[in-house]
Amino acid sequence: MDGDTITRPTLSDVAARAGCSPSTASLAFSGTGPVSDATREKVLAAAKELHYAGPDPRARSLRRGRSGIVGVVIDDRVSEAFRDPVNIAMLDGVSEAIGEIDAALLLLTAGAGSDKPVSLETAPLDAVVLFGCSTTLERSISMLTQRGIPAVVIEGDAGENVPEIALDNREATRIGAEHLRELGHERVGIVVLPLAPDRARGALTEERAASSAVATATERLAGARDVFPDAAGVVASGSYLDEGLIAGRELLTATPRPTAIIAQSDLLAAGVIRAAEELGLHVPEDLSVVGFDGVRVDGLDYDLTTLVQPSQAKGRAAGEAIVRMLAGEHPTSVTFTSTFHRGATTAPPRVAD
Amino acid sequence: MDGDTITRPTLSDVAARAGCSPSTASLAFSGTGPVSDATREKVLAAAKELHYAGPDPRARSLRRGRSGIVGVVIDDRVSEAFRDPVNIAMLDGVSEAIGEIDAALLLLTAGAGSDKPVSLETAPLDAVVLFGCSTTLERSISMLTQRGIPAVVIEGDAGENVPEIALDNREATRIGAEHLRELGHERVGIVVLPLAPDRARGALTEERAASSAVATATERLAGARDVFPDAAGVVASGSYLDEGLIAGRELLTATPRPTAIIAQSDLLAAGVIRAAEELGLHVPEDLSVVGFDGVRVDGLDYDLTTLVQPSQAKGRAAGEAIVRMLAGEHPTSVTFTSTFHRGATTAPPRVAD
DNA sequence: CGATTCGATCGAATCGATTCGACTAAACTA
DNA sequence: TAGTTTAGTCGAATCGATTCGATCGAATCG
Predict the structure, then answer these.
(1) Do B130 and B137 meet the contact criterion of CB atoms below 8 Å apart?
(2) Cross-chain residue pair A53–B121, CB shorter than 8 Å
(3) Which positions fall inside the HTH lacI-type domain (chains A, B) (predicted)?
């Protein structure tokens, strides 16, 4: 039983045993074309006897030109990317949509770690969804078009022929900011998502803002600046609660202290609230906080005022676009809209200081 | 430019243009075998002119017998599976380990949704890592052995020839339970991970415990029962904070109320603590809580007493086992050990009631 | 100077299935 | 009954690259 040189049976072997030609056996297996019941049963029986487990996917995909695999490119390592519930929800959406054509997801990391997206070049992909992927986007796209592999980008500009699943980041953030202004806030701080692939943390300078490579962060920043042009900002190194905590401490220990903080994600917002609590500030009386995403942050006791984005729907839209591209259609870009959720973390600023 | 029938160039086309045979062109591309610098450059130049993007992965994998793809089977939908940080850490470990052979991860869901693991049968896999996968395990394994695809199972018994990455669930839980007993606890409640694929919630009966299909939950339960044979239990429907909250409420409103709760995961433990807070109980004075996993639960203010398991290492071990199997070796099963972390959520029970 | 080796290249077989067109025999129409 | 359809089967080409063994010219060696 432990001979290492066991060769698996091929369809031809099965056909030979069933007493028919390989072509007929193929027909019997795939269900395409007319095959008599008798023959089909003979083929199936032969297959069972030989322990034939069905056609080899490699050969099949060569011939068919399809592999049934859709790539998902994230530019982080797995553990980082999936700490963000938004990414998980989007992935889930993609997974759901492409499940309908029985495709599976290949996880590709194009990130800092590997200098070359090896797998993008060598994986048998039918199509690809790019999650943001700021930096490597251009190179990845040109690689894919050269290979003739259709792609969809979620939040990121990829040029004319690549459909994009976008979000109204700027408008949505502006709505949140206007909400704060209407409440009477004037000194507002902003916690910004990473602006560059190096994920450097620190104060937001005009220089950094200008050289940003990450569309999402830039757009949301613009939305906040539309209403509060002079708001101070701190750039976080990721969308994590801890980062929000650090950024929150920094913003809240400045003088004069802001009366409200716009965080570019709910996780950051939760961290900001934690920072406020640390400093003995009450939310929303002493500090109003607005988030973004609308994910439920485990362990946050507040009903966060935030912009709820349809993450799962975005993923599904991306998946559906893929399905349509594989069917030969040319889906167009879609922009999703966030909805403002007024929670319990925003209130008018305290009059007395 | 918009003709739909553009056929991509093949290696033969490139060879023809470079004035050599396909075999030589192949050699030039893959780096195998001796090729003169002049020829190599001609081939590369021709490739560039024709916009040839490198060998077709499908053809290559057919010939080579390898696809560079490792499957990861989870029996949930993506959004569920990745809510648990342990799974993410393990996935990250796998990803890291197999990255060394330039393989990528194919996400396969074998779960309740699809009645048949279509992709397991039809994906061009070199090897597979099964994450738990209680129910479908047997069928998946037999399918894979039939196909001749090596597999590794993380926490789940898969038979003799399949290496397993295990954890000392029972012993570790017992250590946590003994810690509680040493502190003087006698009335202990247990929050149990799902015991069956249907993820039914509810009180733990002997019947349910006996018919459990999930090794992890059963083993941890046994460890707790080793010390507290009569402890009451509640089965959660997943490893989430919310589930811990529900289970915690149930256990803590029983009479007599337990003085300590053993939760089978940190997320569940965090929920239990939340439930205690709701009821005005102080942790650890009124209630001791022990978790499992050692993940940092965002938003939990307590330093949780827990059993820290090396999730990422488990994943990496699985990945390394895969790498070795692909190299023709026969790695053996590995059992990892959890370490007890005494945090601030356990204390002696209050004497006065 | 003839024999041997070595490096570079090529031809042809191969990986395992799918698919198109051709062929046979049975069933149907006029 | 001759002519036409149709269901069932088969042969052969094809998908695109890899690889083994053979070949050929040039360089090395005795």
Answers:
(1) yes
(2) yes
(3) 9-64
